[in-house]
Amino acid sequence: MSIDKGRRAILGGFAAAAGTAIAPGIFLLAPAAARAPDAPASDKVRWGLLIDTNKCETGCDACVAACFKENGIGNSGRPASDPQWIRKVKVENPKTGFTREFPVMCQHCAAPPCVDVCPTGASFKRQDGIVLVDKHTCIGCRYCIMACPYKARSFVHEDLTDQKPDVPRGKGSVEGCTLCVHRVDRGQIPACAEACAAKDSKAAGAITFGDLNDAKSDIAKKIAAVATKQIRADLGLDPGVRYLGL
Predict the structure, then answer these.
(1) Whole-prediction pTM
(2) What's the pLDDT tens digit per position in 22-36?
(3) DSSP string for residues in 85-122
(4) What is the CATH number of the domain that holds 175?
(5) Residue 42 domain-assigned?
(6) What span, in angstroms and rounded, lies between the C-alpha atoms of 85 and 188?
(7) Is residue 154 in a domain?
């Protein structure tokens, strides 16, 4: 297993954001949510996503492109080995022929099976609900890939170049959506949500990010007002990603 030099732990804290939102999607409405340097994640917060499939346009891949750019993920042209941090899927009702397209990523479960099966503790869940992989302790066994019912994790088969300093990656380890934890910790929203909210996006704000525990947050208000679903809710994993319109 090859581990790239200069990796930094994903848990590193970042400077707290100052002031209110300076542009759409750049800062959270409550910049105080940004963690102070080295401050631990709090269980008072549970970060999550709400994806409105009614607004998710067929063929739009703005969220996928933004994720790949933000996290330094390349496309090798070999789908079987390309990272699956986020992907668009299409489902169809066999009785009516009605179809939906929507993004699927790590669901950041409250009871993540990937964490349960990890023999080294490399897969772990932060107190604020974000599920991560510590690349320093991952031994590449891929048990977590087999345990994830959402096919949301990938194994890095090849050497990586041009990595982003905030997003440590490396050959021989497992990886997946981090909810752009490096952005969240400094008071920003994930790249997928920001791209989805952009004026030129076809999706027109299909992705809402926020604190599921804060009744005053936009995401909590929407979930309280309309019926949403969790993918494979029957498994009892309590995903932090909810879907509207499925």
Answers:
(1) 0.81
(2) 334 333 334 345 565
(3) SEEEEEEE-TTT--EEEEEEE----SS-HHHHH-SSS-
(4) 3.30.70.20
(5) no
(6) 19
(7) yes
